[in-house]
Amino acid sequence: MELHSLFLSKSAIQTLIRDVLQCGCPETVFADVRIGVPALFDTHTVDGGLEILVGQRLLVTLVPLAALVDPAEAICSILRAGRAVRDTHGLNRFRLVVVGSPGPAMRRRCEELAVSLEDGVHLHLLEERDLEMECKSAQSN
Question: What SS3 class is residue 128?
Fold first, then answer.
């Protein structure tokens, strides 16, 4: 799946941010949305990944799980890089979205990691089919 092909409309990006990631961003931030394929700020070098910057406040990095050679290490590295970008550029939040189907052990590890993160840094695991359905639904509206 090409992640960037899901985010061709503002409504798909809003659906991801508000409905899927449960972020309460105000409408005004969506006036300035930038997409970097693979990145705007170099939080990652993952094939098929992308970054979405919303309103100079929120940076979302999406990466396909299947493209991560060592998922545990890659996720930690991207979270560190995202936190540094957030702090350097004065952003409010950084969200890493890993798209794929992790096994039970990987899911547990990611859930444990997500709980330990500082405020303003978030980790989300999304199944590919769920992300596709949400974004395609938003594009058809």
Answer: helix
Give the residues across from 54 on adjacent strands.
33, 58
Place of tokens 């005004």: 28
Domain boundaries along the sequence of the chain:
3-140
Phi, then psi, of 23 in degrees rounded to 5: -95, 130
Q: What is the DSSP letter of 45?
A: -
Segment 51-99, tens digit of pLDDT: 999 999 999 999 999 999 999 899 999 999 999 999 999 999 999 999 9
Helix, strand, or coil (residue 121): strand
| Cβ neighbours of residue 25 closer than 8 Å, sequence gap 6 or more | 17, 18, 54, 55, 57, 58
Q: Tokens 């992640």 — which residue?
A: 3
CA distance linking residue 133 with residue 136, whole number of Å: 5
Contacts of 95 (CB under 8 A, 6+ apart): 21, 23, 58, 59, 60, 61, 82, 121, 122, 123, 124
Q: Which two tokens stand for residue 117?
A: 């993160």
Quote the pTM value: 0.88
Residues 27/57, Cβ–Cβ less than 8 Å: no
